[in-house]
Design brief:
The protein is α+β, with helices and mostly antiparallel strands and 647 residues long. The protein has five domains: 129 residues, 2-Layer Sandwich (Beta-Lactamase), CATH 3.30.450; 123 residues, PAS domain (Beta-Lactamase, 2-Layer Sandwich), CATH 3.30.450.20; 104 residues, 2-Layer Sandwich (Beta-Lactamase); 85 residues, Orthogonal Bundle (Helix Hairpins), CATH 1.10.287; 162 residues, 2-Layer Sandwich (Heat Shock Protein 90), CATH 3.30.565. It contains 17 helices and 22 strands. The strands form five sheets. Strands 2-1-5-4-3 form a five-stranded antiparallel β-sheet. A five-stranded antiparallel β-sheet has the order 7-6-10-9-8, sandwiched between helices. Strand 1 and strand 2 form a beta hairpin. The chain is elongated.
């Protein structure tokens, strides 16, 4: 509709004319342009009306243009009429509310505004706007505002949202929900849920290719689940590969709210997690804080087939344990049943635990549990039957070896005893012959032979004593007899005893002993044997002209004895095996020396029986140092030592 020629701008600006007409035609309020003749009885002639005027008054434009305004001609001399006529006469703006009638005779309340725009030769042109001022109209405007706000809220939601009424027809939805259905359906509002579902299935936007084979059953189930509106979320796969989570709730008027969420990233992460869990070659289970099963992998029913029919989310650990006991899978006696179950459940409250579960068929499983942040548990269950079998075999082998070793030690001890009795006689009689106690033997050769017998007998006796000591130590029957002892005296005595051997070997033997050495709780005979063994070895393997030094000093909570020589030395690769029984290091010098190879083994064992430590350092061709560290007093012996010192 065009503006009246009187108000039209020059032809050069017709674009503005069209813009003004478009603006008036789209205005929500009624707009009239009317001309007033100037006399009191002159009518207000209508020149233009917009579409909103027709909606409000019911009068088409053709019935009012060129005629008096239907709302103002009946005002007469009323107060509102006088006010408006005064404004027309004075060519000024005015606003008023008045009672009017629509074309169909229905009364209405309108709010009218006069705006003068042009005056020429006593005639005035006015733009008149009018709006429905009745209460119903206000309510309708409020309803429309609320509906617009609701739509804004619905559209602002990131998920797809729809509201269905009590008859299951769509009332409102956002754009994300509308995009879930193919466009040929047109306007969605007012359509039933089942109609929308069937349309989606028909056009391939709802079901995957595999699911299409049972489309009708799926539609029936989906409509029933929708109408139940349980509020429980469920997830389904769309044909385009996306995963959609659906949650539906019933509202107070019987309608249903449907919320669709794209959970594809979470589902993909869950799938990757599931694949990782399934690839584990162990039973994986996840439990909540009430010991209910949440997740498991395929290994669980494989390893425990007796539980296969019970494995559903939410089943309790107690129910699974009871099933295994009832079916005899777990060998638990009736009187131990409840205590066993409670013990297993107790592990659920521990941050991390590790237990072994043995089946009645002999299979053994190691169950490792770790608490989750929510208070549940993750468990990994590995079969260790083979490991336990190997442990059993090793234990049996160890016990067999220990028994054999004990038998060997007993045999050696018995043999040593049986050998020592005749050997003592040989040594004693050879000593009588060697010293010619009962007269000359007649030839010096006999004396030499008797001396050889005597020396050989002593060597054999030393060897038997060493074997007997090793046997007692290995059998755990070497008992220490501790007493308060001066280590200084033991070192001096040992040095004195070995001085003859040193002179005969042309080796210098010296000692350096700290003056304030403390008293120790020692087995006197055992420590003397340690010192004599070390000095004997040092002298034996030191060349003529060499030296051996024994040093005793205290450091921290220990007393240390060092035996250092300038002998042949030992290769680093041989140091570890030197203290093993019957081990000897072979070289040109050692082949000429006699010995059983037991001296250092016995020495190390005796030191360790005193809670001490023996260390060997050596350089080939330069010499060897053996360090013995003895604690000042074991804790158990300190009261005894202190009382002896006090006395």
């Amino acid at each position: 509709m065009s503006l009246p020629r009187r108000l039209a701008p020059p032809a050069s600006d017709r674009a503005l004319l069209r813009s003004l007409a478009d603006i008036y035609d789209r205005a929500p309020d009624a707009v009239l342009i009317a001309e007033f003749g100037g006399a009191a009885d002159s009518p207000l002639t209508v020149l233009y009306v917009n579409a909103a005027f027709t909606l409000l008054s019911g009068f088409p434009a053709g019935e009012v243009i060129g005629r008096p305004c239907p709302w103002l001609q009946t005002l007469g001399s009323s107060a509102v009429g006088r006010t408006l006529h005064a404004a027309l006469d004075e060519f000024r703006p005015a606003r008023a509310k008045l009672a009017a009638s629509r074309k169909d005779g229905k009364p209405c309340q309108i709010e009218i505004t006069l705006l003068p725009v042009e005056r020429e030769r006593g005639r005035g042109t006015f733009i008149i706007t009018a709006r429905d001022a009745s209460p119903r109209r206000g309510v309708e405007r409020a309803r429309r505002r609320a509906e617009a706000q609701l739509r804004d809220v619905v559209e602002s939601i990131n998920d797809a949202l729809a509201l269905y009424d009590a008859d299951d027809r769509l009332v409102i939805c956002n754009q994300r929900y509308a995009q879930a259905y193919p466009r040929p359906l047109g306007d969605l509002e007012g359509r039933s849920f089942e109609e929308l579902v069937r349309h989606g299935v028909k056009h391939g936007s709802v079901l995957t290719q595999d699911a299409m084979r049972e489309a009708e059953r799926w539609i029936t189930d989906r409509v029933e689940r929708h109408r139940a509106a349980s509020g429980v979320p469920f997830v389904r796969l769309l044909p385009d590969g996306r995963w959609l989570q659906t949650v539906e709730h019933r509202v107070s008027d019987g309608g249903i709210i449907t919320l669709l969420t794209d959970v594809t990233p979470a589902k993909q992460a869950e799938t990757r997690l599931r694949d990782a869990i399934e690839s584990i070659d162990a039973v994986f289970t996840l439990w909540d804080d009430e010991t209910r099963l949440v997740m498991w992998n395929k290994r669980y029913p494989e390893r425990w087939p007796e539980l296969a029919d019970l494995l559903v989310p939410g089943v309790t650990q107690r129910a699974l344990i009871e099933r295994n006991i009832d079916r005899g899978v777990l060998p638990i006696a009736a009187e131990e049943r409840e205590s066993y179950i409670q013990k297993r459940l107790e592990y659920h409250r521990i941050h991390a635990s590790e237990i072994e579960v043995e089946r009645a068929d002999g299979r053994v499983f190691l169950v490792r549990s770790h608490r989750t942040a929510e208070g549940g548990q993750v468990r990994l269950e590995t079969e260790i039957t083979d490991v336990k079998q190997r442990e059993m075999e090793l234990r049996v082998a160890k016990e067999t070896a220990e028994a054999a070793n004990r038998s060997k030690s007993a045999f050696l001890a018995n043999m040593s005893h049986e050998l020592r009795t005749p050997l003592n006689a040989i040594i004693g009689f050879s000593d009588l012959l060697r010293s010619q106690t009962f007269g000359p033997l007649g030839s010096n050769r006999y004396v030499e032979y008797a001396a050889d017998i005597y020396n050989s007998g002593h060597h054999l006796l030393d060897l038997i004593n060493d074997i007997l000591d090793v046997s007692r130590i290995e059998a755990g029957r070497y008992d220490l007899h501790r007493e308060v002892t001066s280590l200084r005296e033991l070192v001096e005595d040992s040095s004195r005893l070995m001085s003859t051997a040193a002179r005969e070997a042309n080796v210098r033997l010296s000692s350096r002993i700290t003056a304030d050495l403390p008293l120790l709780a020692l087995d006197r005979r055992a420590v003397r044997q340690v010192l004599l063994n070390l000095l004997s070895n040092a002298i034996k393997f030191t060349a003529t002209g060499g030296s051996v030094v024994i040093t005793a000093a205290h450091e921290d909570d220990a007393v240390c004895v060092f035996v250092a020589d300038t002998g042949i030395g030992i290769a680093e690769s041989d140091l570890q095996r030197l203290t093993r029984p019957f081990e000897q290091v072979e070289n040109v010098l050692t082949r000429a020396k006699t010995g059983s190879g037991l001296g250092l083994a016995i020495t190390k064992a005796l030191v360790e029986l005193h809670d001490g430590r023996l260390d060997i350092t050596s350089r080939l061709g330069e010499g060897t140092t053996v360090a013995v560290r003895l604690p000042r007093a074991p804790v158990a012996d300190r009261p005894l030592l202190e009382s002896r010192l006090a006395s």
